[in-house]
Amino acid sequence: MKARFWTRSCLMIAALALTVGVAQAREVQWDSLNPAFRGATFVNDPQVCLGCHEDVHPYVETAHAKAFQYGAKNALERSDCESCHGPRSKHVEDPTAELAMTSGQYEAACLQCHQGGARMYWQSSAHAAVSCSACHSVMEKKSDKALLSAADESAVCYSCHADVRAQMAKPYHHPVREGKMNCSDCHNVHGSVGKSLLKGATINETCYSCHQEKRGPFVWEHAPVRENCANCHDAHGSNNRDMINAKASFLCLQCHTYGGHINLPRYNRTSNQHGQGCVNCHVTQHGSNHPSGAKFTR
Amino acid sequence: MKRFFAAALILLAPVMVQAQDGERVQTSGSITMGVQQVEINNNADKFNEYRDIRDGFYLYDLTLEAIDTPSGHFIDFQGQNISRDDQELRFGLGSFGTWRLDLEQNKIPHNISNRALTPYIYQGNGQFTVPTPILPGNIFGYPNNAADRNIVLATDEATADWLETHLRHTDLGTQRNRTSASLAVRPLDGLKFRLTYADDRKDGSKITYGPIGNRPPNILDIQFTEPIDYTTREVKFEAEYNRANYQTLFSYFFSNFANDNDTLQWQNIWGTPANDLSYIVGTGTGGTHRLATFGQRALAPDNNYHNVSLSAGIDLPMASRLGATAAYGKMKQDKVLLPYSSSDFGGTLGFNDTATLPRLNADAEIDTKLFNLDYTIKPIDRLNLRAFYRYYDLDNKTTESNWHYVTSDAMPAGHATGGTTYKNKRTNLAYAYNTQNYGLDATYRLAFLRTTLGLGYEREEIDRDYREADTEENILKASISMRPADWLAIRARYLYGDREADNYNNNVTALSYWYVPADVGTDNDNPKFTFANHPDTRKFDVSDRERNQFDISATVMPLQGLDLTASYVYRKDDFDMGDVSSQPLLGSGLADAERVTPGDQLGLLEMKVERYALDGAYAPTERLTLTAFFSRDELEQRQRGLEFNENNKQNPSAVDTAELGNWDRPTAQWIAKTDDRTNTFGIGTGYQIIPGKLNFVTDYTYAQGKVDIEYSGYGAVSSLTGLPVADTNQFGFRTPPTTKHNQYTINASLEYQLVRNLIFGLHYLFDRYKIDDWMQEADTPWFESVAGNEYLLRDTSQSHQWGNRLVNMGSYLGGGSYEAHVGYATMTYKF
Questions:
Q1: Which of B238-252, B322-336, B410-424, B678-692 has the lowest mean pLDDT?
Q2: Is the Cβ of B78 closer than 8 Å to some Cβ of chain A?
Q3: Would the CB atoms of A247 and B368 count as touching at under 8 Å?
Q4: Taking CB atoms and an 8 Å limit, are B631 and A275 in contact across chains?
Q5: Where are the alpha helices (DSSP H) in chain A?
Q6: How distant is the Cα of A178 from the closest Cα of chain B, in angstroms?
Q7: Cα–Cα distances in Å, from B593 out to B588, B647, B769?
Q8: Strand bridging mode B303-316 / B402-404
Q9: Residues 6+ apart with CB under 8 A from B756
Q10: ipTM > 0.90 (yes/no)
Q11: Cα four-point dihedral sign B406, B407, B410, B413
């Protein structure tokens, strides 16, 4: 297993090294993005824009406006409005030339600066089909962070993922609706190496970022727990305590049919049906570090 | 927190003073404060589960920002719910585009119950004791001898009486405070560094259980609190280098988790050892069972985690892009181990001495490796292709050893000298796996109706060590999105997955026993040479699976200002592999070697999810907005079990006429169908009564959840006669009552803007929650409170076995019904 990993890694790195040699810059070619830009040049003076566009006053409160105004570090940032809207000399000469851009074209403008870091996998993410402006309000500060299109991050997500809002309404949930967690605490909506746009490489690695006590490793591992927390839990909410996927002992009985006490909702003891079911005795079901922990009762 | 807050104000002060010079320094901010009154009729802790809403003065929101315009230096502060248990603070300073320092604190309460009672007194260091036990001598309850019945029931009454006088309130909940400092520096255009340090503390207590006894039903079990005193310190360093044609990201992360409580010890509340022995002894013909004075177990161990990763994205010809990530992680845990048992039952074997362990430390380590490759290209106009490969390896390097298994600090009858049975020789298995995913996705934009079609194929291969099966899955995906008109958008997606388990080995558990056949003799409960789980069982996460998923959503904007979205989600996983019959004893030479299992798959057979959602927003005028939503979430599960006597695995014919019978009896099967439904409904409106002056906003939300379990088969009817089984029968079970959750919430706010920067508000919140859950009540057809004391429960069979008793901290822990009214008045000042 180990040799196979390193062999593949070396091959991949060699392939990557080769590809760097043919890397190609992807700066926005405004005239190919929109032929109406042909012949236009950068005005490089936001005051010219503000002279007519008084309605964009909220823009000055945004992180972009402040960064461009007080901390521009390159020509693109110094061009302020035009860094996103493209060269506008023709528009200044003839204000009726709107140079309208589609949301997809604006995405290319965003990626001029926002291609790196957590957005490395944007093009291959499930959200690549959605434009940046679907979630971000660039011209007005509506949220404390990230120029989101709504003050509450979860509201932005729910505008498409209404089914998740329904799950979060269940009585056992992570504190998202109370505002103590955000969708982005677990998901990287701009693309990731994890499934379901998770921030971690796996579901478990994502969960361990808050539940470090479950990380172990343990002397006695519970195999399906180590492999996938979602085997037993629904992180978006549940009608069952502890956000588990089935009611108490019925969850355990989806895998265990040992005999006697362990394969029936009831066999002559209160613990099966009350409280947390099998966990009433098998209390270290996430893994045990006790020498007598083979059955997770210690 | 106070230090944090004070430091922030001190740092802000010079800037605020400088703010007098309006030309040089721009300042802005706002403060929202007020008073509130809360009235809760019942369980305040469910209402405040993840928040802190109390009477009194409240500083809801505070923001400050100052920018030194010539230099680009700034300082800002944001705070919510300041000085409360759910406060959130962020203080930042820096220079735009060059560097930034952020200090953040997020406090998250998790209140579980304000009504929990326990007989225990916490002595610190994870130890719980009682002032005096219930019976200062032998206890009775085992064996299952009718002659002892009255004694046992009398013991129940005595326990209930004892609890009446010894129960005391205990806090139940945790408080998590996460504080972090992050420095981001951009020394050159395209080059960024970020260093983050976080200190995450979690204190309080949560629900746990303390079983003492060799195995059910000889267990004394008690529900009590587990002390939580966690500290996690984390460091993350990131370096980014971004150019127009490629981007790179290096990241190193270290996390160290420490638990101040290594061990949980709880006193056996029923009795102290007679004559200073470290155990107590039951009486009767069934034998004796030694039960320790204290139970003991290890709590979450200190551990640490390293992860280093390197990612790169490169733009290539033909509008293509290659993204790659390689990451390596290491989880390590090496706590000193406890002995097998807290008691000296082992005699000369010394099970209460760590010298008898095969090793003294956990020596647990898991390494993870990730390699991810993504390639996207537009080979021709309108066509996008994506190829991907992903490899994840979890390599468990934990040392495997041969252990004895001294069950729950006790020793069964016949082993009074400290010997262990063959079943108590166990090996810890270093479970590991690796997974590969690879595939190709294609999307093509058609020239009409703004339509995009998508097709994809993915294959997932998972190799596992010490599990029942490796799995391979082929996944097909199709999608369509259309925007035939500006007022209409439709998206649909379908996924089909076919997973196959490779040579499912239902006897893999045998690997975790280290005894030899000579140890076993003729013992009929023989997990190594017979089976552990019933052979017809298929664990759903490693079994065959047929997966169908379908999503569709449509957004309609028929009028200016009207926006309607409807969506439907369908998920179905079918785990049923059909006939799985086998002859687990074939070739053993036993008399029952030819017996055949019923062949009906046991375990989770099917899971189906359907979700419907309808959202609408309408703004008929600039002054009025209306919103509404409805959603329905349906989860269905079907599972099958089979009840058999584990003591007759080798000789099922011996129990052919017993209710707790042989493993090849089809009538011993049971079926449970779970139907879990949640409906949510909400409406809201906002109206500018006086535009720019007086606003009114209100919303109403209703959420209703129901869980029904339709149960049939063994337990509901006899496996021998087919006749109904009484609720008081030890195996009796039937369809339980519906579990119900209902929550109603009303918010209303009236805000008046007196002058440009001064707003007054009146607000009201109504929140009502009602729960009915048979598993959290004290009396059901299957278990009952003793003498009306909800803190001592027993099985309605009133069996003599101690496994029927459960001392608990009360009903509806973690979520009782409540009704709350909150009124508050606020003032917001902006500057």
A1: B410-424
A2: yes
A3: no
A4: no
A5: 2-20, 30-33, 46-52, 63-71, 75-78, 81-85, 89-93, 103-111, 153-158, 162-168, 203-208, 223-227, 249-252
A6: 7
A7: 6, 16, 57
A8: unpaired
A9: none
A10: yes
A11: negative
pLDDT score, position B276: 37
Residues 6+ apart with CB under 8 A from B739: A239, A247, B705, B706, B707, B708, B772, B773, B774, B775
The alpha helices in A1-124, defined as continuous H runs, are 2-20, 30-33, 46-52, 63-71, 75-78, 81-85, 89-93, 103-111
Among chain A residues, CA nearest to B569: A163
- What backbone torsions phi and psi does residue B68 show, to the nearest 5 degrees? -85, 100
Note whether A263 contacts B642, CB cutoff 8 Å: yes
A181 contacts: CB under 8 Å, gap ≥ 6? A174, A175, B108
Across the interface, which of B88, B245, B711 has its CB nearest the CB of A25?
A: B245
Q: Does B513 touch chain A (CB under 8 A)?
A: no
* CA–CA separation, B83 and B537 (whole Å): 54
Question: Distance between CA atoms of B63 and A223, rounded to whole angstroms?
Answer: 48
Query: Is A57 in the B-facing interface, judged by CB distances under 8 Å?
Result: no
pTM reported for the whole predicted model:
0.93
As a whole number, mean pLDDT of residues B645-667 equals: 94
**Interface contact flag, A70 B466, Cβ < 8 Å:** no
Among B173, B239, B159, B240, CA closest to B204: B173
Taking CA atoms, B474 is separated from A194, B249, B569, B570, in Å, by 19, 32, 21, 19
**Is there a contact between A212 and B255 if contact means CB atoms under 8 Å apart?**
yes
Indicate yes or no: CB of B466 within 8 angstroms of CB of A258. Answer: no
Q: Are strands B263-267 and B127-129 parallel, antiparallel or unpaired?
A: parallel
Contact B527, B496 (CB under 8 A): no
Report the share of chain B in percent with pLDDT over 90: 74
DSSP β-bridge partners for residue B242: B247
CB pair distance less than 8 Å for B255 and A264: no
Return the structure tokens found at B19: 């703010």
**What is the CB-side half-sphere exposure of residue A27 using CA atoms within 13 A?**
6
Residue B418 has pLDDT above 50, yes or no: no
Q: Which residues of A touch B327 (CB under 8 A)?
A: 193, 201
Q: Which residues of B328-360 are buried (b: 16+ CB within 10 A; e: fewer)?
A: bbbbbbebebbbbbbbbbbeebebbebebbeee
What would the two tokens of residue B369 be? 């490796």
